[in-house]
Amino acid sequence: MSSSIHFTQVFGIRAKEEDLDFFDTNLKYDSALFIDPFLIKRSRKKEERDLFNRFNIFFKRAYELSLTTKGTPDEYIKLKRFFKFKEPKEIYLGYTEGSNKGAGLGERFADAITKFYLERTLVKQLADEKNYPDNQINPAIFSIIGDQLGPDGISDLSAGLLMDYLIKYTKEQCDKLGVPRVELPVREQFDFKEFQWTGGVYEELPRNPFNGEAIILVPKRFLRAQTITSADSAKSKIVGILKDDVILKERFVNIVTKSLDEIEMKEIYAAMEDENSLIRRYLELVERQDPGEYNFVMDLLQFLAVKNFKNYFKNTEKKEVNSCSDLKDLLFNFLESFNHYMEYKGGWNRMWKKKRTANSGHCKEVVVGRLLHGMAYSFFQHYPDTTFDTEVKTGRGYIDFRLIKGSCRIVIELKNLCNDALTGEEPKIPAYLHGISRQLPIYAIGEKASYAVYLTSQHYKSGKAKERNDSLRIDEIKGEIFEAEEKIKKKNKQFQKLLYYNIDISPRPVPSKA
Question: For residues 287 and 133, is the Cβ–Cβ distance under 8 A?
């Protein structure tokens, strides 16, 4: 297993993170980063700021097409074709972390936005540049339509509309750094002369050695990691705008007197249709609250963990692995090293949204998982006959991690111990119990695993009175092991054991106070 999976590693580029203008793409796994039109609009480069007008042109053309569409099947297909595009997998961005294959948003995006345009309730207001700051339509407004038009869909659309620029940018960066280029297909690009998607072009670009496909680089300044433009946040912001304006509060008393859960999005649409200024006010508020581009030097969400931990285990003594039991022991040897890093080398700092402060909020499971995967990638490179996978798709969801050697398979599920959101089929149970009692057995049976490992990451372990401590949940989880293990053994005859390991990532006192 090669530990070199980022662009700079694969092509032997020696550069500090702060000196890279582009995102150092992970060439095996998609990164949950998104091209954000707001960031393009505010680019320090005029050429890139000018690109923002492409969104204005695209959505104005969509509005013109919708006016001539009468709703017949043929005309519906014609309008949908305008919105339908292939995911730009060459940029390796989006929610699908298990590969760069994409989640199939193109079809859903096209269906959702075509239906919205044909209903024509709010389309006129959304197509009027006067309702936008700087008189330029911003596609971020369309994220309120639904999840299909969230950050992943808008990011993919943005990549398609900017593809010619991204290709030119990639060529310039490659020539500057001495990266070889060959002629390769690019899946999609929008032709602004013909006003249609090309269905693909051929360009001289760097080749990904893992899949033979083209690589397209994206400037860091275009990328954000977290979205603030989901439908739920839009509802909250618009209700806040109505409440803060005495006149609007009185006009829309039927909305502002309800709880957010009681308000339906169609009521928000009606308010935006009735009051044109809401679009502008909403976008101005979003821009003011904008957290900005992702900071890759700090990398708080661990997108570069594989690169950062490449040499972490270079001096580790290699152990013999001659059996499935040996592979299990090797995994736990790694987990001990991971826990040691968390406890004694300050790793716990990375597991909080702001370094060294627990009250800033803990990081999500996916962040813990990225850091664990980054270190595991470094560890298991010393065992080339093993495979350590992440985000492995099954018929019943995604396994967080899977370790394989020969016929021996170990499935691993990770949960934050503080994750008590009720989940699963009725009766719903807290997520930290759902992982071991329902998810892990399904994965172990489906994978015909020899071992299953349940990992929890513990953020809260205070010894002070009245401060949160999740330690009692560990006992709850241990109480589920026997039943979960028996459930697996009934349908998987080669299964041996279910094991549990808790990773302590709670804040530590500074040395002077220890």
Answer: yes
Q: 206 with 11: CB under 8 angstroms?
A: yes
HSE of 157, CA atoms in CB hemisphere, 13 A: 30
Count of structural domains, the chain: 2
Which tens digit of pLDDT belongs to each residue from 35-66? 988 899 999 999 999 999 999 999 888 888 88
The values of phi and psi at residue 422, to 5°, are -70, 130
Let me know: does 329 contact 46? Beta carbons within 8 Å.
Answer: no
Which amino acid is located at 223 in the chain? L
Asked whether residue 133 falls in the same domain as residue 221, the answer is: yes
> Which structural domain range is residue 400 located in?
305-513
Q: How far is CA 116 from CA 138, 140, 220, in A?
A: 16, 15, 32
Single residue among 227, 254, 276 that ends a domain in this structure = 227
- Cβ-proximal residues to 194 (8 Å cutoff; 6+ apart), any chain: none
For 356-385, the pLDDT digits (tens) are: 444 458 899 999 999 999 999 999 999 999
Let me know how long the chain is: 514
**Which pLDDT score is estimated for 51?**
96
Tokens 């298991």, residue? 380
The answer to whether position 290 is within a domain reads: no
Helical axes 73-83 vs 105-119, angle rounded to 10°: 120
Measure Cα distances from 100 to 27, 96, 324 in Å.
Answer: 8, 7, 31
CA–CA distances in Å: residue 446 to residues 327, 433, 491, 493, 498: 20, 20, 9, 12, 15
Last residue of a domain, one of 182, 202, 227: 227
Three-state SS at 451: strand
Q: Which amino acid is at 494?
A: Q
- Tokens 């991971």 correspond to what residue? 338
The sign of the torsion formed by the CA atoms of 385, 93, 364, 435 equals negative
Q: How far apart are CA 441 and CA 421, in angstroms?
A: 20
Mind listing the pLDDT tens digit for each residue in 95-115? 654 433 444 456 777 887 887
Quote the CA–CA distance of 468 and 432 in Å, as a whole number: 16
In a domain, 346, yes or no: yes
Region of residue 431 (left: phi > 0; alpha: psi -120 to 50; beta: else) = alpha
> Closest Cα to residue 373, out of 358, 362, 388, 387?
388
Residue 267 belongs to a domain: no
Q: Which two tokens stand for residue 107?
A: 């079809």
Structure tokens at 418: 């503080």
Beta carbons within 8 Å of 127's beta carbon, 6+ residues apart:
59, 60, 62, 63, 137
Is 157:86 a contact under the CB 8 Å cutoff?
no
Is the same domain home to 321 and 222? no
- In this structure, are 472 and 325 located in the same domain? yes
* 71, two tokens: 């709703």
pTM of the model: 0.87
362 in a domain, yes or no? yes
